[in-house]
Amino acid sequence: MKRDESRACCLAIDMGGTKIAAALVDSDGRVRTRGRVPTPETLDARELADAIHEVSLKVLAENATSYSDLSGVGVSSAGIVNSRDGVVNFSPNIPALRNTPLRDMLAERFGMPVCLGNDASLAALAEWQFGLNRSVDNVIYVTVSTGIGGGIIAGGKLYEGSCGAAGEVGHMVIDVNGPACPCGRNGCWEALASGSALASRTAARIAAGDSSMMRELCGGDVDRIDAQFVALAAGQGDALAQEMIATTAYYVGVGLANLINIFNPSVVLIGGGLTKIGDSLLGPAAKVARERSYVADACEVDIRQSLFGDDAPLLGAAALVMR
Ligand SMILES: [Zn+2]
To answer: Can you give the pTM of this predicted structure?
Structure first.
């Protein structure tokens, strides 16, 4: 890549529980080159930082460019991120990250400043900046997969809260007596509306004796049931699977209604693995969200699928640099 072209690019990194992705991203949010490595199974944050550095070097080498040619380095990380201090407080699927000053550890390796944020918040930033071209000022982004995360664009900028940890929408309480959540509390949105919640609710019903083709599909081992499994059975007309997806859609909608009431967004974007189920989930969820929202009576809200899928946190890391 010529020097003037690479200068317009930044290095974006997405630090996830299973993989570390790195990419050169241009100012329009287009990925020029990308690389990825599995997240090292380690309890040592320095090994994670080294792995990020290595995959980044490979991406740069493919473009014959160096750190000094870049407009900046942005990192999105899973977990609770204090973006003000550049610290990952806790990340359930990356045990090495606990009160880890990841931003400064990486800045030291790269020899240049690094920006750090939460993956779902940065996904919201990417969807707004590169997807909606900042055409609206108030957007809620929600990602529904194994867990539920989110990001808030309020008044034309990313809402970060007092220490940069805002947007943990998955842990708003929907049912005070509800099921246990991985966060250690009960009845969180994530414990009712995520892919894991869909799977565990379905497994419990099959274990309790409900009839379903899923019993044969899983060979009697209900631990094999995941969201994809339920979606497959629903597509083949299985009544229990369809009921379980309808229940999940209902809970997704209830959470969205709360967010619409609080933030009065003009656009709500839903991403994450569970959206692959498609209209049988998103349609009913949007209907429940509108019916249960006090604010939606007064103000139109556009509820739709997000644009960038799995790339959103990576592109958000780039958007953070450009901000
Ligand atoms: Zn929770």
So the answer is: 0.93
